[in-house]
Request: fold
Amino acid sequence: MQPPTRLLRLLPSMTDAAFAMPLVFLFCGMKGARTLLGDGDTGWHLRTGEWILAHGRVPDRDIFSFTRSGQPWFAWEWLWDVLFGWLHLHAGMAAVVLASSLVLALTFALLFRLARRRSDALVALALTLIAAAGSAGHWLARPHLFTMLFTVIFYSILEGTRGARGVPRRLWLLPPLMVLWTNLHGGFFVGILLIAAYAVGEFGVLLREASDPVRRLALRRGRDYLLTAAGCGMATFLNPYGYRLHMHIFTYLADGFYRGNIMEFQSLNFQSGQARYFEILLAFGAAAAFVRLRQGRLVWPLLFAAWAHLALYSARNVEIFVLLAAVPAAETITEGLRTVPAMRLAAWLQRGLQSLAGFTQEWNAFDSGPRWHAVSAAAMLALAVLLYVPQAPSAWRAAYDPKTFPVAAAGELEKAGLFGGVFTEDLWGGYLIYTQYPRGRVFIDGRSDFYGPEFAGKYIKAMGAQAGWERYLSRYGVETVLLPPDAPLAGALKQSSAWHLIYDDSVALIFRSARAAPLPLQRVSADPPGGGTQSLAVHRKDL
Reply:
């Protein structure tokens, strides 16, 4: 009997499918590595990590800009910066892409395992894939991927306590995990809110139960959840900035300027492809909340009320909502499917539902055996080979997309010996930090919390070519401007006799002040493309 058991362990499982499907989505349905590197913020994060490794400390002053050089700065995701900066130093950008892909794959494999505890395997897999598609808009090689992963880890541990007679000791794993989460990404407050919801759910038992033993157990469990939440709260102060980090994050999130001008803090575009998957989970999540409320189970109704509101309010919260909603949605659908065959239905429909139930049970039995997850390991190995193989297809090239970022234009500036002092959009600022630091400094980048609302507001007006943009550029001694062709400021610069268009490759335009020394750049195109509208929102921040 031993050989068949070993063979079974080598066979693929549905956990392997959940692990591999985000990779399939990313590298076959999206742009692969260029999707993960679709944000300039990755660049300054990597350079921050390399700076920390070189200096042995976390920076508390700006090191990247010439507009606010030396001003106080919170490098609050420093641990991600160090980990991925080390990978970048020793194995290149391909290692950054590979590690980010692994975090995504682990997130959805663990989410499937969590949903599988309470539902049929096929239903759990389907809801996991819907959640993956609903969160794909934020699949970027940035620290927030760890908030997705830690949300699922915390959720798994908390769900594992459901129905237990006492409070499992595994709850005390959460404060040490919170220390890691706090230093990896600023979304650590999600974990504390999760624990608080479970505490309130236990205290809610006191409102509906008259039995003294049940009430005492609920009171003890609720107390322990609160103690765990308090422990996690204290753990968040174990960061290089102490309580000042919390004050900084609160001030940042409470400022209405950012909510009105940072695109991902605004509501989801319901005409986007991501929206349909969010809507599916919103509907099933609402149904699950209704069913559980009737059963007197308050945790998911509380989480649904909070995170559905936050997801509708800000697209940045959609990824958290879909991760949380997949589990109760899968459980509710499974309960519904199991009760349907017992209903009085037409004979043909009854037979079909019974066949489906039998098929599902067979899959459950097949998937319940132990596995070595060799398929998941093989998938990561194959991805690593494709990322490092020479002349790989574009989806497997671990480099910034030259159709989105000013790759050629920045190269021309470097050839001309110009590093720093360039005015460009914040998205491209992070890219320039990646390519030019420490030789050059940028005007602005994606660290919106650092630059502040006053500076960012003036930057937005300048990008929109509003009155006073000439004085604004002159104030900072800007002699070179690097912009996409559809930026309103690019149109104003073309019309100004004080500026000359000296480079155009259809992705980026370079303008040079008429008063400045000429640069020996080779102009690629004589007729720059026009039209279009540039979004003036400050670029997204890792929250």
The first helix runs from residue 2 to 10.
